[in-house]
Design brief:
11 strands; mainly beta; seven-stranded mixed sheet; four-stranded antiparallel sheet; single chain
């Protein structure tokens, strides 16, 4: 059984920082591409950042230069360092991977950024 468990969400002031973590089990973490998505109220879920098994990264234009995705394969953990936070970053953040023809999602961790 695949489990993805996010943590690290909370409240921050605009300009502040938060670090999200996603602990994975049930998959060969080191060979999986991993992603962070977010969903704001009344919006569709959107891709924020991706990292391949080899460590290559991609970011949405809205977070490029402010967020950093990384992974620790030994700890089977995915991270999202969020700096220079803006109120529009307020959303529930989800960890995601696609493995054996199945999408897997965590339950999400909420982030609220106040101005």
């Amino acid at each position: 059984q695949v489990y993805l468990r996010e943590s690290g969400g909370g409240s921050a002031q605009a300009g502040g920082s938060l670090r999200l973590s996603c602990a994975a089990s049930g998959i060969f973490f080191g060979i999986n591409d991993m992603d962070w998505y977010r969903q704001a109220p009344e919006n569709e879920r959107e891709l924020v950042a991706s990292i391949t098994s080899g460590g290559s990264t991609n970011y949405s234009n809205s977070v490029k230069g402010r967020f950093t995705i990384s992974r620790d394969n030994a700890r089977r953990t995915l991270y999202l360092q969020m700096n220079s936070l803006k109120p529009e970053d307020t959303a529930v953040y989800y960890c995601h991977t696609y493995w054996r023809n199945t999408d897997y999602w965590g339950k999400g961790t909420p982030v609220t950024v106040s101005s």
